[in-house]
Fold this sequence. Notes:
It comes from Pterocles burchelli. By secondary structure, the chain is α/β, with parallel strands linked by helices. The protein has helices at 20-29, 32-35, 41-49, 66-86, 100-109, 120-158, 179-183, 189-192, 197-210, 256-272, 292-295, 312-323, 361-365, 372-378, 382-386, 393-410, 429-439, 449-459, 463-493, and strands at residues 90-94, 112-117, 168-169, 185-186, 279-283, 302-310, 327-335, 498-505, 516-522. Among the domains are: 20-137 and 275-379 and 476-522, Vaccinia Virus protein VP39 (Rossmann fold, 3-Layer(aba) Sandwich); 393-460. The strands form two sheets. Strands 5-2-1-6-7-9-8 form a seven-stranded mixed beta sheet, sandwiched between helices.
Amino acid sequence: TDDDTFSDVFCENSKKLINVHLFALAAKYYSLSNLGVCTPLEDLLEALRGDNQGTTVIKTDEFMNNKKSHEVQVMSELVDNIANYCGIKQVIDIGSGKGYLSSFLSMQYNLKVYGIDSSNTNTNGAHERNRKLKKHWRAYQSRGRANLESQRLEKANDRPVESEIPCKAIAEEPSNSDSNLQSQDQVTIQDLVPSFGFTEIATSEINKQTGVDLVSCTQSDESKLSEEVPDILDVLPVDAVELFSSSQCNCGELCEEEKVQRMASLKAKANKSSESNLYFPLTSCITAETELSDIITDLEDCMMVGLHTCGDLAANTLRIFTAKPEIKAVCSVGCCYHLLSEQFENQEECLEEVWGFPMCQYLKDKGWCCGRNARMSACLALERVAVGQMLPTESLFYRAVLQVIIEEMYGVTKSDRHVGKTFSKSSSFIDYVRKSLKKLELDDSKLPDSCIMDYYEKYKHRMDELEAFNMMKVVLAPCIEVLILLDRLCYLKEQDNIAWSGLVKLFDPVKSPRCYAVIAVKKQSCF
């Protein structure tokens, strides 16, 4: 694209927007789906599997809502393939919430999973759900196998003669390769990563360093969906669940006595269970400095995962991954960008502080800042709006007018308190304002109903203007998300111990708007 293509979006003198159509085209051009920096999920799975066949997978929509089912089904398959490639059986699920992903990884793929969440309520909920699903799991397995066999028979009838499809494998060093590997079609990192921009440079550096062609975050928003999920979702064997809580020392270390007790309990539980699939819900606060061995006493070579890790937790997951030699791979899908801490947002320099953004040295050197408004915009779902799921214009209008009221009537421009979901619980604008003022601990007795309605009438004619403004924010949202995700990817590219890292679109963005995963695998010399 010519550098001048989008030069006419804004007026050169006033800097005002003068070409909305060109603005939308520019936003689309700089969105992640158009930049070509993502690795296709199908290519990644094919390269990880080699000539291994997939597992018979149980459909999760029988015991999860549509959104969660879609997320867990797709991500668990990818995590299992990465774990198999790395030769590991232990998974740490950060911000595990109610344990939807953790449970399924354990039961469907026989992985040993530790689900860590900061909320005791979530941990207890995960334990109870896992206890219940044991009763239903074998029935789900039998039904899944029957469905798969039925599909195979249908395919056999449709196509009596199937063509041979050559398997693609990952080219590794010949240290433990077999003769078959050399004759197979090989999927290398060059095949998986787009060949332009910073990714091309990073790929070149990786190949020089390793000589190996390697394929390519209340802490989880899963708790927000818990009310929508039927009770039957309650995954995991009764005798395979051990519930721990380190709530008394959330961010600190366990004492030696607690470590001994935990290890003894783990060993006893493992000896009692005849099944290899174990899931352990834990309660602990995770920071960039967290020592996992203080939380998980039998920590071994493992991978970290996070399905919609909230705010800084997504960044800290990547930092822990790069710092801890036991963690061989990571697959992290972040969310809640508005909760990210920013190093340069308030111009406060603090060398010892760990920030959610920026992560990479490139943006740190430039002092890059998004700001809360931009990060809030990054959370919007363009794809949902595009299919007709419109923005809640009335509630946004209520919130905007409320902002004017508290500034003009109370002199408040900043508050640590939040209005929350007051709109859905309000019968009118007056009711909304009064409930909001109480939440903000402001005296509403000085504000008569007539005054509140005067504000409403004053700005009512600008509701369409507000809707247009918010639609422009939606259009811009993917561009801001690109910046945050590429910052995380660049951070991984800057590390010396990583063989491959990439961005992968895992989910249907209409079902799950935060659909991109940051994935990385360490060099084999680190194994």
